[in-house]
């Protein structure tokens, strides 16, 4: 399961607007919407990188590994299931070169990495040889010995003992397993490459290696899910004893196998639970995990109470850290500028081969948009403090968004007290559907990607 960094929400103003799960996703990963980013703005990126500035801003590195054993039927990411070892070698070489190109810029030169994130795709798909060669070169260009977090996404079926040891050996602190469900029929129906036997085989080895934090990803509402299967999945996940959990509600973005079958062959369309049911399942999972010693850390995450847990990557992103996104189609946020890489294999590799950063489109937000972005993203934590925004941006959010907060308060989605905005459980369960209410009017109702 890849990091959810792109999506296509529809405009939402009230919670009652959302009933069936239609094609078009709701996950909000950034602001302003991607559809406003343009290729004409990429010169601004090279200008920004050529200047030093804000050296104290925390900086992280995202490495995109776009390979998977199989394409899940709900997946909309740029992933490849048909690349051979030579092509993977070429890609890893380009990825390392891209990091080296960044390391030469005035903006990033000499700055330590605060966090590193291997996302995809499936980072654990590549061989130990490729992983070690990639990391050796990347660390030469941008050392991460002082990083607070090195996160790595895994698909259970790709994790052999030597692979796990290699992942531990490169300094990974947060291992995230894309489990998604604990029922084989559901995993198969949704096109997942792994089965539960592979999860059971790998989990004891993961625990033995002593990663600082082991996270498990689940999806509420995969095709074929029922109350009974979801209850089994939640209980079996508790038995796996992860330090933290991430739960997403199933969506149907454009360009997935499922979305295409819904749009093209109505009769064979997959039955996806409606939003109310997915929220009820998500809510049940939260309550059951809480009874098992977990606590809510954001709209999507729970953490085990007695263990040291954190998610530096998420928190850094939601507080406007610099994040260099490398690899095909990756997203970056550096020096207050948003930009995305070329989205196709040949174009990405071609630019790198010619010694150019493979920039595709960009957007330079205004100060007002930077402020709104942070507020929108931090609302996903479930609570925000007005003082943070007045100190950082000089904006009183309680005044600026008074009508929105009042309406959402009336609908039982949040409460405002002593300068704190707190989402209720109902608000948390549908946070992405509420966030467009805080968009500037020109972005409301627009296409997101
Ligand atoms: S594991 Fe599935 S959902 Fe995750 S990136 Fe690969 S194909 Fe997409």
How is this structure best described in words?
The chain is 37% helix and 17% strand. By secondary structure, the protein is α/β, with parallel strands linked by helices. The strands form 3 sheets. It has a 9-stranded mixed beta sheet, sandwiched between helices. A hairpin with a 2-residue loop joins β14 (414-417) and β15 (420-423). The longest helix has 19 residues, at 85-103. The model is unreliable at 1-17 (pLDDT under 50). Iron/sulfur cluster is lined by residues 1-2, 68, 71-72, 75, 77, 79, 120-122, 155, 178.
Bin the strand percentage: 15-25%
Describe the largest sheet: 9 strands, mixed
Question: From the structure provided, what is the oligomeric state, counting identical versus distinct chains?
Answer: single chain
Gross morphology = globular
Give the ligands present.
iron/sulfur cluster
- The low-confidence runs, each spanning 5 or more residues with pLDDT under 50, are 1-17
**CATH first level of the largest domain:** Alpha Beta
SSE class = alpha/beta
